[in-house]
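Why does residue order matter? Because the sequence determines the fold. Keep that principle in mind as you read this record.
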Amino acid sequence: MGRDKACFLFALFWLCCSSGYAQGLATSVDPHVYLEDHCIQCHGEKKQKGDRRFDGLGIDFADEETAYDWQEILDMINLGDMPPEDEPRPPAADTLEVVDWISGELELAYELHGSSNAVGLRRLNRYEYRNTIRDLCGLNIESFDPTQSFPPDERFEGFENVGSELVLSDYLLARYLEAASATVEKAVGFGAQPKGIREVFKPDDLTDRTFHFRPQIWFEINVGGKYLDVGHGDTKSSRVYANRFSGVPADGYYSIKVRAAGVGRVHPYDPELLGVDPEEPIKLEVMVTDPAVGYPGRRYNASDRVVAVIPLKDDETDVYEVRAWMDKGFVPVLRYANGPQPIKGVLSKIAQKYHLDVMPDNWRDGVAAKPSENQEIYFSDVYEGPRVRLFDYSIEGPEIAGRPSLSHQAIIRTAVEKGDQLDIELVVKEFATKAFRRPLRQTELDRYVRFYQSRLEIGEGPEVAVKTTLKAILSSPNFLYVEAPLDESAIDDEIELTQLKQYAIASRLSYFLWSSMPDDQLLEAAERGLLADEDELRDQTLRMLNDPKARALVDHFTDSWLHLNELGSMPPDSKKFKVYHDRQLEPLMKEETRLFFQDILKNNRSIDLFIDSDFTYLNRYMADLYGIEGVGTDEFRRVALPKNSHRGGVLGQASVLTTTSNGVETSPVVRGIWVLENILGAPPPPPPSDVEPLDPDIRGATTIREQLAKHRKVETCAECHRKIDPIGFALEGFDPIGTLRRNYRNDSGKTVRKVDTSGKLVSGESFEGIDDLKQLLLERKDQFARCLVEKMLTYSLGRELGFGDRPMVNALTDELSERGYGLRDLVELVATSETFREL
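Structure:
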């Protein structure tokens, strides 16, 4: 609320001068004039516009909330958001005096309040727990997820790793115990390795159906035991699965070989009836799934994991091999990935137009089990549409090298068996040191050894007792909490305290960059005390950024900063946006943004590319959504954007545009707030509780502009919406899944009104659309840089930034500017900053 902030500033300034607080301030500014000209008529005793009244405001900068308000006010002045563009502006010299005075008082307030860098409790969130288990226990977590029963992590402004939000409930504690048990049981094995398998599945193993006499919700035919034809792409229908196969005998990598061909891609039917792209190859999807979770042969299963999507050759049989990790008991499942759907509706149209001569009288009967007439030729015999033709498939494995977790030595490494006795001290010390991410104290070692011995005394065998002990270690707060305050009073040795701080920095760095535990090289640096050196910390940061595990930073920071972790929470309407569901665009949208971020990070490109760029990352489906030609593969690749594509930067990416929609229509308010929060770092305050929310837009009844104009007549809403709405209007050229549009359409697809993307910022600049808006945002690059610095600091520290962090934000923003705004430089600056290193 720019005008409110302006009045707030001048009123406080007047009160400050009149109270004697600012005695000695050399100024020619008459506070009474400022008060009369800018505040009293709207924020005095008789009228309190925006629910603000100034005659009782305090000016004590020793109060952190008061100082924070002054900081926000100063930001609004510096950004030019106040006084409002349509109000008289005071002389620049007078404003400069006011700004200088506020800045000086804030400098004193920074020193008084200090940084809010005190370490708080921060437990592992779900993805940090999974990754830590992966690296600690050597487990493949592609299918195994020990956190699947955990409740969702609470978010703070999109971030899922902020300690204050990561509370530990009784329910979660019980889930931790279950996860520890499941992890140890999977990771530690004392028995002999199981024998390998090789199974071959023929059409007779897959189905006994030999014809379809009418359209059904699936199309799957065993043709004389020679091959299986699959013609449907429905995710809710049958999948190819061999019932006789009970599952793989052990965790490991398996080879899945499929002998198949694509047939009927070129067909005599109207392509509009089939609803598939005739230029796209027929694709076979290979999945692995757990029968214990749900029946593998139909619909979908919560344990489903796609391991390959294979483009099949037209009318040419070939053998395709896939190497896939499978957990014990999992089975392979096949599906026609891009087949016609819903197949029953598609085939009904095909039958009606092309094949009535072979349709029995009861072909429209949805429950008929057999045709009403005797037939020699059935509908499935004459159907010529696209199909997967499967001759057989096989599975073989596991690879011996792919099963490190089957030996207890993989998890406890140098554990030694001495007859019937385990060297339990060595086992505990080796495992707990890794799990706690610091050296184990002697008292801790003794406690776990006594625990192991107590398990033996109650009758557990050595193998069970060591597993129980490892489960106890994984249930310890020392494992579950990635950060906790150091109790210096309980540490007598100054050397030990210094060393513990080194290990804490190592953990903070590894969970920042990898969302997982430190590796041996980082722990060795901590042991040698090297992480106190800024150069060493920089070297470690750059080394870790080059590791594949740094993909965690790409995935989770973009999820948090851009709120992509909300994508899918309100899925687009399945009828209006059928392509979103048919082509499963949600993960593809995320992947575009992640690869885009990764490119900028890896090559240290300027952060202004997030606002506008001449490239992005696309595959066939995403390029088709954007109307960009020349991308014909399923794999993502870097694509140069055509001029005037409007797609440059994150504001033109479908992930952001879909996240900021409600699944049915777009909202300039939601999108405008998103830009203010995540690009400009200036989120508006929440709406007053007594103001009714804007009803969903009914296109054709009134324009969204008219609705918002009516909304802005409410005085308490006007000032915020003057900032929010224009930015949102610029993004109205994109529909709820990010497709470009020039017109609004009603539910029947009829054009009802032209899209107007023009607007005027509160600071006075006008624009005609998204491209103009991007240029205006680029003129505020420093403001965007500050926003991104704050987001990166929040993510790296796992806590909310406070008033006392402002000097560090300022310093990092200035240094980032001096170094050319490179994203990799930003990560390095954050990791080596004083705030990051202080514990």
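Residues 212 and 380 are 5 Å apart (CA to CA).
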